[in-house]
Amino acid sequence: MAEPFILCADDYGQNSAVSAGILELARVGRLSATSVMVNGAGWPGDAAGLAALAGGLAVGLHLNLTHGAPLGPMPKLAPRGRFPSLGGLIGSALMGRLDPSEIAGETDRQLDAFEAALGFAPDHLDGHQHVHTLPGIRSAVLSVLRRRYKGRPVLLRDPSDRLTALLRRPEAVKAAVVTALSAGFARQARAAGFLTNAGFAGFTDFTGIPYALLFEAFQARPGPAPMIMCHPGLAGSTDDPIAARRPQELQALHRLPGLERLIWHPQRAVPGAPLDWPMARGT
């Protein structure tokens, strides 16, 4: 890659095993960013360890609408107090059955939980299973972000990429589906005054091919401001469909030669100060 890429570990706070694995990598300079799941079992208890590293780590919200319980009542989306499956959420989004006020309310609650535990606004926002880009969700999310963070350089993850790039990487079909569902999101995010990455990789089925080989493929045909997602964690993760894969990713990311020289490293002198994202400099 000609430019450093943003390496973002998802699911911090889902449970303490996931959080501890992410902290291991962050402490040795092998992550650019992490995204926090504030309705997880590890939050807000794991916030202190993360806050201590925030000077050199981008910290954002991993908006969650498909795993566990919402932070407040959502009688239409979660009438029994549990979020729907991803398939159920996508179906409701595409059929126009989502209530924007419910989505906005839960987005506000999750942002409040993030800020209450860390004491600063998120550097970025993405979605668990990329739900933030779905039709019927994106507009509500952007409305909340404009109200709360107008003028702040918040990065919104664009999980799409060019077809020519996707075909060179693992899980091209999954990536293409996400790209289709995310069509137009980056344009809307930028029109609302926010930053986006340009180029995205990290899709995997969490089985089979060794992660080190997958990671090499993730770097094929990067965009001009690329991001790679990952899902490391320690063994012992609970209530987690990818628990067995997390330690493999953790060990691979520890061992990849020169990884710390390939990734972007955020820097800020004051905790919670806005980051100078490379996208803001036109890279």
Helix-strand layout with pairing:
Blueprint: E1 6-12, H1 16-27, E2 33-36, H2 47-51, E3 58-63, H3 86-94, H4 100-118, E4 124-127, H5 138-149, E5 155-156, H6 163-166, H7 172-181, H8 185-191, E6 195-196, E7 200-201, H9 211-218, E8 227-230, H10 246-255, H11 259-262
Parallel strand pairs: 1-2, 1-8, 2-3, 3-4, 4-5, 5-6, 7-8
Helix pairs in contact: 1-10, 4-5
Descriptive overview:
This protein is of the alpha/beta class and about 280 residues long. The protein has a domain at about 5-65 and about 125-130 and about 155-280: TIM Barrel (Alpha-Beta Barrel). It contains 11 helices and 8 strands. Strands 6-5-4-3-2-1-8-7 form an 8-stranded parallel sheet, with helices on one face. α1 links the parallel β1 and β2. α1 (about 15-25) packs parallel to α10 and α4 crosses α5 (about 140-150).
Instruction: Please identify the top-level CATH class of the domain at 6-63 and 123-130 and 154-281.
Output: Alpha Beta
Tally of individual helices = 11
- Global shape: globular
Q: Which whole number gives the mean pLDDT?
A: 94
Instruction: Give a short account of the largest sheet.
Output: 8 strands, parallel
Strand order of the largest sheet: 6-5-4-3-2-1-8-7
What is shown here, in short?
By secondary structure, the protein is α/β, with parallel strands linked by helices. The protein is built from 11 helices and 8 strands.
Which key terms come to mind for this protein?
8-stranded parallel beta sheet; alpha/beta; 283 residues
